[in-house]
Amino acid sequence: MATFKPSDFNRKADFGTVESKQNPNNGSIRKAFVKQFSLWYAPKTRTLNQQYQIQGTELDNTKIIVVRHNTAVEGIKVVQIDGVMYDVVQYSPDESNAIIAYDFVTLKRGA
């Protein structure tokens, strides 16, 4: 079981969806992030061995964030951190009976 200090959760991520919106000036369609909620997260770093193992897979060039267990994260497909949109590649909820549980969310930068 991973253990984290409360001070590790010092960054904020916005969880939401993407909608297509039309620009009123020129009529072009663009994707816009629609925030549903925000959560504090802790970044999770991989070891060199883990990075070598995922090279060439769909998890290459991804990052992992850790949030306190929250069932609302399950249906989310997009996360925005510091103005950058990321697609949720993998969501690993902690389904144990622990008092404090953590969910691991794997993100890949959107195109």
Strand content: over 45%
Average residue pLDDT: 87
Overall strand count: 6
Structural class label: mainly beta
The helix-strand sequence is EEHEEEE
| Biggest sheet descriptor | 6 strands, antiparallel, barrel
Alpha carbon gyration radius: 16 Å
Helix count, DSSP H or I runs of 4 or more residues: 1
The quaternary state of the protein chains shown equals: single chain
Low-confidence sequence ranges: none
Measured between the Cα atoms of the first and last residue, the distance is 34 Å
In helices, the fraction of residues equals under 10%
What order do the strands of the largest sheet run in, or round the barrel if closed? Answer: 1-2-3-6-5-4
What is the structure about, briefly put?
By secondary structure, the chain is mainly beta.
Labels describing this entry:
mainly beta; 1 helix; 50% strand; 111 residues; six-stranded antiparallel barrel
Break the fold down into its secondary structure elements and pairings.
Elements: E1 11-22, E2 29-44, H1 48-54, E3 62-68, E4 78-81, E5 84-92, E6 102-109
Antiparallel strand pairs: 1-2, 1-4, 2-3, 3-6, 4-5, 5-6
